[in-house]
Amino acid sequence: MITRAFKYLFFWRSLLILTFFVSSIANAAQLVASVDRDTIGIQETFTLTISADAKSNGQPDIASLKNDFEILSNNVSQFASISNAGSEFKKVWQLTLAPKRVGTLLIPSFNVDGAISDAIEVRVTKQSQSQSTGDEDVRVSVEIDKTDIYVQEQLLVKIKLISQVDLSRAEMQPLEIKDAVVVPLSDKPKQYVANINGKQHLIVESDYAVFPQNSGQLIIPSVIYSVMPNTQRDLWSDPFGRNRANILRLPTEEKNITVKAVPPIAQGTSWQPANNLTLHETWSASLDHLKMGEPVTRTITISADGLTGGQIAPLPASNVDGLTFYPDQPQNSEAKTDKGIQGTRIETVAIVPNRGGEFILPEVRVDWWDSKNQTMRSATLPAKILNVLGSSAVQSSQEPTATTLNTTDKNALVTPKEVVTQTPSWLLGLSIFLALLSLGLLVYVLSLRKRIKALINEQSEANTQLSEKEKHIWDLLKHAASNRDAPGLRKGLLSWAKFQWPKESIHSLDDVAKLGAKPALTQALKKLDELLYSNHPDDAWEPNELLQLLNECRKEKNLKQKSEGLKPLYNN
Fold this sequence. Notes:
This protein is an alpha+beta fold. The protein has helices at 2-27, 425-482, 486-500, 509-516, 519-532, 543-563; strands at 31-35, 39-41, 46-53, 69-83, 86-99, 103-107, 111-112, 115-116, 120-125, 138-144, 148-150, 155-163, 167-172, 180-184, 190-196, 199-212, 216-220, 224-229, 248-251, 255-260, 273-274, 276-283, 290-291, 296-305, 323-327, 331-337, 340-353, 357-361, 364-370, 375-381, 384-389.
């Protein structure tokens, strides 16, 4: 009897423990992720729902979703449900997502306070699964100027949004192309109105220059334009403007481009595919009356339509006997136009003649590929003749030899015998006096040399301080030029000019122009003055041209000091 009672007691106790264990599992924190559809079109959106126990303090990390999806909205809410089984409290995150590309995309698992959800696969197709509305009020198009190009050749891509209704929002995915350099041709899209089929349309146009880096097939991928028509919002149903269902997602057409390798005729040269390439040179002085030891500056500008500044190959180094070349750091820049990129490379070299005479600088030749006519071309600068004033002969001292003696005096070629004579006393005294005088002069010279050395050290230290101050002001000058800050450029230029010409009185840009004594510099300073006192900004103004001319003045001063045996004041 006792045994049977014990068995009943053990049975009910075990059942109670099992019930408590199952209840604990049921009440454990859970994280569930789900989507309303797992197959959608590239133009469609879908809803991702993540639910967790309301007691959870954490939140899901949704940053990884941005790799494949655009997060249009993210709403958080809490609710409770009460039933015979008890009450249940939940925290819910609802996200409206739009796919960025076609294919099988993965929604990763999430972790909230140790609870982990399952990952979800979503299949994205090119065409929408729902029936097309046929609404052509808003559409997109993509245009390319070529279907086959050479490697590193410029390809122009235009992406247009065409709408005949007002839009409150229009956003496009960034254009990213594998194995290619993509350069936007403007900071923001152009907007204009065009008449199409008798109706006014708003055109939003984004232009790009694309430079493929490898031969083969280049794919211009489909990009998504998210637009929202400007319609009246229902304040009762959507008081906070969170309803994104009226957003249109318009994908552009994918384009395939054939990229050809460098043609055999161009192999062995610097490959530069361009629509046009020109050379232009300027000199800081006339080439007919140069002086030995005085520098002259040559500036060569290479301009290429369809190439970036970095794509333009450097010019070959010059080597002419009797001339020393001091090349400056080349300057690369790009200008963006409707026709693409116009690259510029500026190479500056200071030339110092080491002797007088006539020198010939060889022809400058740049080979490039004409993309329009599909042929090789060459841009050239003719050979230049430099006439340098000064002696071209090197004087050398000659030691007397036996041939310079009077050969008629045969005894002069015979070694004389040793003769012993007695030195007079007055000559001995004179020798002692001269020795003491020489010793005094030596002491004086050594003392004077020490003083001169101290003065030179002081001067060198002063020059170093001046050089550091000048370099600081020059850096401020370059910063103002890079920011196209005309007032800052003028202020820094006047401060720098006082280092360049310390003995002159400088109060205006006209004073700088007179001291610079260069027509190109005078014109550039005049342009700066006109810009400062004009109410209309000049987009074509190039402050780097003015900076280059000022840098030539610095170079010439340093080279002149080098030729005079002085330490250069400025470190370029």
